[in-house]
Amino acid sequence: MDNRTAFYKKLKEILDKEEQWPLSYMFKFVCPNKSAVIASVEEKIAGTQKMQRKVSRNGNFVSLTIVMEMPDSKSIIDKYRSVEEIQGLIAL
Q: Could you tell me the residue range of the domain that residue 80 belongs to?
């Protein structure tokens, strides 16, 4: 089992044990302050949801916060997996 698979397995266990569904879940990411990267996150995660942005002091990075109503832990993990390929994106 690779590190990503182990991480998602543990996250699912924690979410299933500690949360009641559905719930409002906060996705938080940090990425380079590039419109293409931000647009990819909007496309893959945010959709019609409101995404808050906060640009770093020097303007090189931006933090992205998206709060979404999620039906179950699998849906959360699916969202995280959908953005794994975005270069420079860090999930917090």
A: 3-91
